[in-house]
Amino acid sequence: MATVLTLAGDGIGPEIMTQAVAVLKAVNEKFELGLTLEEGDLGGAAIDRAGVPLPEDTLQKARAADAVLLGAVGGPKWDGIERSIRPERGLLKIRSELGLFANLRVAKLYPQLANASSLKPEIISGLDLLIVRELTGGIYFGEPRGIRTLENGEQQGYNTMVYKTSEIERIGKVAFELAKVRAKANGTAAKICSVDKANVLEVTELWKQTMIKLQQSEYPEVELSHMYADNACMQLVRDPKQFDVMVTGNMFGDILSDEAAMLTGSIGMLPSASLDENGKGMYEPCHGSAPDIAGQDKANPLATILSVAMMLRYTFKHEESAAAIEQSVSDVLDDGLRTGDIMDPTESGLRVVGCKEMGEAVLAKLG
Ligand code: NAD
Ligand code: IPM
Ligand code: MN
User: Fold this and answer.
1) Atom 7, ligand 1: residue with shortest CA distance
2) In angstroms, what is the span from residue 132 Cα to ligand 3's centroid?
3) 254 an active-site residue?
4) How far apart are CA 195 and CA 226, in angstroms?
5) At 367, is the secondary structure helix, strand, or coil?
């Protein structure tokens, strides 16, 4: 019997999680998946209960589970506490402890939302882009790090950006493999774009060289290109459809994926999977806890619901139920239902709904 641990987290986390869990329970029954759901806490909720953002019992449950579904963590309530025990550290720690080095963020435009994006419809129509972000290394985890006092009494903050060849190779392989799978499914040529700052940073020079060697030795059939991170940001809004798979380090991937989210209409639409070497994963929306709209039934639950679909596809290898969820989301959008973030006031026939109504509409479509 497989187990899914749900961690609702903070801010809009509990609201979006309620809707996503209802969807997960519905497909669990409909497709007889035999999944058992468990709950745990992470982030601010865990600080309030146990004093730390990733309590030992949560970590144990996460290790025992086959997959984890996460809402979002963080918020102003905990921003003032000591850095090492802030909510975000709990998220980084669970990623690291579970070895979830491969973060897949899919920016796919639902055609119904072509007008909800801030970009012209023709720039984004048909967009289907995968960002493969390295998640357990780079500047997020490099040592030394801290804030120190210099001899003249001034303070200095510092972090270290480090990548070993083995870390670059293993994320590179994920990107090359997925590029092949996508190319096969779409009947196109496999290609990946590796994003770096090799003109300035030695660590990303090694990144680039390692990607080239990997391509030459193991993936000669996949086209590999390279782009500096600043240009990649610009190209993403100029002509995003030039990309199929982008592979990059932890921090650049964080930034590029928020940017890519907006191409799909809203960050409230972007799901993600964070996988270990064996396909175990944590699934979460790319957005945060959105404190500005928390508790108001305004949050878009679709990124979390679509993260459930990714869980069924990647961890439980159940394509049928994953596709059923994605189809239900599409059907609800066809009906004109929109949370505020994906609303286009110039389009007729649309209706603004809250988080709860949106989730229930997806559930109804699932039947
Ligand atoms: P955010 O993603 O929470 O919010 C950015 C903007 O997008 C806000 O205006 C918000 O209202 C909107 N938004 C986000 N998700 C939405 C949704 N589902 N529906 C509608 N609108 C949505 O980013 P932020 O404001 O920079 O961060 C807020 C907190 O969340 C911080 O504490 C941050 O550290 C944390 N955070 C957590 C995660 C995570 O848990 N994975 C990710 C990013 C940020
Ligand atoms: C994300 C978030 C996290 C990150 C934060 C909250 C630690 O922005 O999941 O994208 O930077 O990885
Ligand atoms: Mn982020």
Assistant:
1) 290
2) 13
3) yes
4) 6
5) coil
**Is the CB of 299 within 6 Å of ligand 1?**
yes
Spell out the alpha helix ranges (H) of 42-199. Answer: 44-50, 56-64, 87-97, 121-124, 165-186
Q: Kindly indicate whether the ipTM for this predicted assembly is greater than 0.90, answering yes or no.
A: yes
Look at residue 262 and give its three-state secondary structure.
helix
CATH number for the domain whose boundaries are 1-113+267-367: 3.40.718.10
Contact 211, 263 (CB under 8 A): no
CB of 251 closer than 6 angstroms to any ligand 2 atom:
no
Active-site annotation holder among 197, 208, 280, 365: 197
Dist. CA 181–CA 179, nearest whole Å:
6
Which of 42, 88, 141 best tests ligand 2's pocket when mutated (most atoms within 8 Å of CB)? 88
Q: Is 115 exposed, middle or buried (0-12, 13-18, 19+ CB in 10 A)?
A: middle
Is 197 marked active-site?
yes
User: Which atom of ligand 1 is closest in space to residue 284's alpha carbon?
Assistant: 41
The CATH architecture that domain 136-263 belongs to is: 3-Layer(aba) Sandwich (3.40)
Count CB neighbours of 199 within 10 A. 10
* Residue 233 CB coordination number (10 Å): 17
Look up the pTM and report it.
Answer: 0.96
Burial of 141 (0-12, 13-18, 19+ CB in 10 A): middle
237: phi then psi, degrees, rounded to nearest 5: -95, -20
Q: Kindly calculate the radius of gyration of the chain based on its CA atoms and give it in whole angstroms.
A: 20
Distance 251 CA to ligand 3 centre (A): 9
Task: For residue range 221-267, list pLDDT tens digits in order.
Answer: 999 999 999 999 999 999 999 999 999 999 999 999 999 998 999 99
Quick: pLDDT tens for 126-136. Answer: 999 999 999 99
| Atom of ligand 1 lying closest to residue 341 CA | 20
Residues of the chain with CATH 3.40.718.10: 1-113+267-367, 136-263
Helix (H), strand (E) counts: the chain: 12, 14
